[in-house]
Amino acid sequence: MLSHIHILDEQTIDQIAAGEVVERPVSVVKELVENALDAGADSISVEIEGGGMDLIRITDNGRGIPADQVQLAFFRHATSKIETARDLFSITSLGFRGEALSSISSVAKVDVVTRTADSLSGWHYVIEGGTELISEEAGAPLGTCFTVRDLFYNTPVRRGFMKSPQTEASYIVTLMEHLSLSRPGVAMRLTVEGKLRLQTSGSYSLKDIIYSLFGREVASHLRPVDLEKDGMRVEGYAGEPSINRGNRGGELLFVNGRFVKSPLLMKAIEQAYHGLAMQHKFPVAVLRLTMPPELVDVNVHPQKTEVRFRDEKIVFDLVYRGVRDALFARDLIPEPEKDEEAKQEKRTAAADIPVRPEAPKPAVSYAPPRPDTFRETVDYRVDADRRLLDQILAAPGPSVSAISPDASPAAPLTPPASPGNRTTDLSATPAPVPVESPVQATLFEEKILSPEKESSFRLIGQVFDTYWLMEYGDWFLLADQHAVHEKILYERTMRSLKDKQATTQQLMPPLVLSLSAAQQEVLRRFESSFTALGFEIESLGGREIRLDGVPDNLFSLSAKDLFLDMLDELSEERVTAPSMIDEKVALMSCKAAVKGNDPLAHEEAEALLKELLKLENPYTCPHGRPTMIRMSKTDLEKKFKRIV
What we know:
The chain is of the alpha+beta class and 644 residues long. It folds into three domains: 10-199, Heat Shock Protein 90 (2-Layer Sandwich); 206-327, Ribosomal Protein S5, domain 2 (2-Layer Sandwich); 348-644, no CATH class. It has an eight-stranded mixed β-sheet, covered by helices on one side. The chain has a five-stranded mixed β-sheet with strand order 9-10-15-12-13. The longest helix is centred in the first third of the chain and has 18 residues, at 165-182. The chain is globular.
């Protein structure tokens, strides 16, 4: 190891700088395509070989580079995008740091041919490993063609860290998908090993690009998003909850035409889907935000995929409201398919849950009336200064008072006395089958689940002591009684929290607990959240507390375990009080709801259906499972070969 300080040579400096800008072949493609977009190109072609390690060629029809500036473009921090530090706060271009060409040329062999509109001839420039080899006049079409060969040829250690050519190529395919979504007006073409992998027409239609990239299944289940507020606009598409992913790969976000990875925006999207998506599932959304450049800082990281917003609350609310409004749009009419074959594909692709085509049993089992699940008279405090809690509790819900149908019983259900004796299948969605099947997603489009439509429903009966059979117009519906009841109980409890009417069950004798110092601090900070759920807590001095009362809808849940779990979860920075309350209410509602294999009286089913139709979101239980699915009369006639 050297013991004295010295200044590095330019080539070493360039290679060190290249480590931040040029991580792998996809970095080269990103920088050069973004340069083409900044140059006004509306047609860009990308060719790669060997995963981009052997060859990357990018051709565009942009403005080109003036001959006398080609050499200058390869100097470090040479750029036409900004001039002073003040310009960093008003960036409208994708590139601005002036590092890309210098970094690429220091670790690869670069060949450039370019011509501007005001020049009769072009310019040919070759630079390898930072050393200029050719700079001469040459014939060329308008625009620029970059050819990058032998990436990392002079840094074999870096080259050894690359993955297989197929994997590196997949990164480039993903990048080009993002770029094509960010600029639907630009025709883009990607060729991998001589085979066409991606092509867009530049028709300015974002939905057409989504269709070409993700297929009919996704494109036919999108809701348009378009909201403008405070000088900012969010537009694009949000997928219906039925199309979801196991990760956040379907959440594609663009700010002023730049693909970004923003935890803030992802949180806003996922919060908009709250109560609609299954747990551990993520939505599909392609959203583009436009705002004055001074409101967003893109100079956070050399990769320029991280951004900061001047007012995060306004941006969060804009995205949240835009997506939420799109999901609950009441007058949204689905686009007609172009032909009957396309309709057939859509029905088949959208199939989620197969149903056995058996006639329902003519008789139903009638269970005795049951007492009301929730009492209505205990005061509590709500931590009202927490914005997220306000958002969770903002949705209107049904009245806490029991429904009174014409026939008795008039009260909602309570769980069986021994819920442990029955089991409820919470993953009751079978695998898709390649035939037309009931489609839960379409319930979102026609808004048939509303109080105004109650008289149009005809409750037929119960099958397997778990599902209700109903008729509505030309539709045959199946409802999951557990999911329906769970949703109703959840909304009742959340409504009682909003109205400050906690429901508490007194413990006899009280429960005495000894807390750690960390648990005491968490309890001090979030005591109002515990009170909101119905806990009555008394300090005994030192580290001991006494639980005099607990939420009365715990049922099979242990009061001690629930209390300590809440303390542990709130001690983690990533968990907020509102999200914790929501999770626990959902858990308690699940435990309290009527189970599968539990016969219901016809009047009880009608009472629950009536209450379900009053909810803003009657489509899913708190965990995201559908409350009901449906089949059309036409679907049934096709299955019985009455029509073909």
